[in-house]
Amino acid sequence: MSKKKIIVDSKLCIGCRQCALCCSFVHENLYSVNLSRITIITNEEECNNTPIVCLHCDDAPCENSCPVNAIERNSQTGILKINQDICIGCKLCVKACPQNVIKIHPEKRKALKCDLCNGDPECVKNCPTNALKFE
Amino acid sequence: MIDSSKCILHIDLTNKKIWKEILDDEIIAKYLGCRGVNVKLLWDLVKLNADPLGSENVLIFGTGLLTGTSAPCSGRTTVTTLSPATGIYLKTNAGGEWASELKFAGYGYVVIHGKSDKPVYVCIENDKVEIKDASHLWGMDVRTADIKLKEELGDNEIQTAMIGPAGENLVKFASVMFSIYSAAARGGAGAVMGSKNLKCIVVRGTGSVSVKNPKEFQKYVNESKKALFNDSGYEEMHLYGTASSIKELNEINLLPAYNFKQSSSKDVTKLTGQYLIKSGYLKKRVGCFGCVIGCHRYTTVDKGKYSGSFSGGPEYETISSFGTGCGIFEIEPVLKANELCNIYGMDVISAGTVIQWAMECYSKGLINKDNLNGLELEWGNADAMIIMLEKLAYRRDFGNILAEGVKKASEVIGGDSYKWAVHGKGLEQSRIETRGAKAYALAFAVNPRGADHLHTQTLAEFGIGPESVDLIEEITGDKKYAVPDTIEKRAEIVRWHEDCYSVTDALGICTFATSSCYGVTPKMMAQLFSTATGYNINEEEIMLAGRRILTLEKCYNVRLGLDRKDDVLPWRIMNEKTAPKGDLPRNVTTKEELDIMLDEYYKLHGWNIDNGIPKRSTLLMLDLEDVADELEKIHRL
Predict the structure, then answer these.
(1) pLDDT (tens digit, 9 = 90+) per residue, B196-207?
(2) CA-CA distance, B202 to B191, in Å (whole number)?
(3) Partner residue facing B290 (CB), from A18, A45, A46
(4) Fewer Cβ atoms within 10 Å of its own Cβ: the N or the C terminal residue of chain B?
(5) CATH entry, A6-134, from 2.60.120.200, 3.30.70.20, 3.40.50.1400, 3.90.650.10
């Protein structure tokens, strides 16, 4: 299982999207909330922002649902990663994920999911208010 | 190059036509983006004799060149138009998440032309752009209409730029509200939107923004963020917001009260950013898109007379406007007033100023209960203030006179009431004590949009933190000028801030990141611009582009007939000392002092000292030959 996880404190989140921008930058080399692996759910009227992250579940529905075994777990870190060469874009993992954090890349037609930046997540490093922690 | 930053979406509401225009690279190199491109468009599209509320006026929404990227605090929108409040140039800007959403939809600008014959809203969903019926939304307040649109379109992620009842009713200081709580408030852009029968621009964008040299760009982003975190004022801005220094300003006699009659009050404890926390009103700290400061507030009132009230804010300006300005020293009426201004879509500064002015007229007997349909508009009467706000938004009773702004209202009431109509060029003055802050005074007097702080705010003159003092030394050559009550070197200080503000706005960055906190320097902005676009420019060149933007704004007003005589301060600021409190009466900024500062300022700019109009040689140096030719043709140069 994963040794460290992203811990979210929504009360501290100011909704700035720096996490999402930096996530899309390291993974896609561009800035896009839509291509970010972290999602922020917002209630604008009440200024509530809730970051939703992949929990790298021990018994992972995404891993279990994948028909081609594209979702691989690093036995040392516990990180669940989608092997882009194997993924067929069938969306079963998208449906299976209880956190609703898996997306399909609109052009590549492959599943996108947090890989914890291999153990040094950009979203956490770029959160200005410590709403995200990695511990 | 950032492609969406070059794309203008034109929408003609008269002929129901929609088309795209791609800006030449040359325009970006010359005007950078946002505020810079906006003023160039306004200069070209709205010439002489246009009615601000007529179909010939345009409403330009420009996003920052860097909006959508991770550059710190870069999510701002600038709205540019001919102001119905002042009849001259107007740019007014706001945060929120609308600008980045527009970028992700593929556009940098939206230009609204003409006028619809019935209420409509514009719906932009990536490539799909439609003009839709808004008759069912007309009359709704901003918050209700936003919820309605989200339900109707089945998408909680849409971003809106919306007017409320004040905009619909052509209140001269109606705002455009972005993402519900961020206001482009000054100068009545909301009334222009209302005159076009345009309730809202809905945006949904799912695309991305890329830059020319991603690696280098992100390196500079990280450096600028780090610098911002290390600024001495950063933490306080995040913790307590813009109202963090209310108590301190009051102590040094720089907090306007009672319509600028006083510059300090007995007890402002319950009006501070700190009190909002202590008493449980503050529920969340909020940031705009890309913001790393989070100065915005979300507050609620949970019990008492105003129970159930909730909104974004209040800011310093709101508290000073409805609190000390009206002689009210409790926070709850201020929170209610803030909520009403946000949902009706009204500028808090102007709305507060016209009410203060009316309170003073009432106290001096120029108006009475009969004029006010029984309302006892005495200093400190919070209930009357709240009632008057509603009358303003709906132009009811005396609210109809006040809705024209304080300059016109004082012309209607007459007598000596112009003496306490605190405005510059027809724009109600921001809540800064310009008798005691001389660079602010000069900046307000020469500001192309009127007496206002968010065009050129010279906070550094107070020398509050080490960064301010260093900056003043960098500008003037000596730390000793980091004091607000001298007229020496104010021209240099103002011009630096003008250049810096223009660049900051053009890139879409919040000025709190460049000149309230001092993390993002002009050098960093040049590095960010260069790596984002591929045009390599240095600090000096980007500041010169900023000056070009400011000078074109100035020339826009010159073309309308303005000159040195319009660069003045409100009568009260130049002629009346504040009422003494203890041994600290605040002196005035005299006409003589202003004249000395103006002479130095025009000279520094290369403008004619006699009339305050830029010289041809200065315009040529700024690569504005076409502007010089046009002004010469109409004998304004």
Answers:
(1) 999 999 999 999
(2) 18
(3) A18
(4) N
(5) 3.30.70.20
- CB contact set of B592 (below 8 Å; sequence gap of 6+): none
Interface check for A126 against chain B (CB to CB < 8 A): the answer is yes
- Using an 8 Å CB-CB cutoff, list chain A residues near B289: 16-17
Same domain, B266 and B391: yes
Q: Which regions of B56-147 does DSSP assign to beta strands (E)?
A: 59-63, 77-82, 89-94, 109-113, 120-125, 128-133
Q: Do A45 and B146 touch (CB under 8 A)?
A: yes
Q: Distance between CA atoms of A118 and A80, rounded to whole angstroms?
A: 10
Please calculate the CA angle B425-B431-B434 and round it to the nearest 5 degrees. 70
Whether the predicted model's global pTM rises above the 0.95 cut? yes
Residues of A in contact with B181 (CB under 8 A): 44, 47
Closest by CA to B321, choosing from B236, B406, B442, B407, is: B406
* CATH code assigned at B453: 1.10.599.10
Q: Distance (Å, rounded) from C-alpha B377 to C-alpha B370?
A: 11
What is the per-residue pLDDT for B1? Answer: 47
**Dihedral sign, Cα of residue A86, residue A87, residue A92, residue A98:** positive
Q: Quick: pLDDT tens for B211-235.
A: 999 999 999 999 999 999 999 999 9
What does the alpha-carbon distance between residue B182 and residue B505 come to, in Å, rounded to a whole number? 16
Chain B residues whose beta carbon lies within 8 Å of the beta carbon of residue A47 = 181, 283-284, 286, 298, 312
Q: Give the minimum alpha-carbon distance from A49 to chain B in angstroms, rounded to a whole number.
A: 9
CB B270 within 8 A of CB B250: no
CB-nearest to B294 from A16, A21, A35 is A16
Q: Does the pLDDT value for residue B12 go beyond 90? A: yes
CB distance B100–A126 less than 8 Å?
no
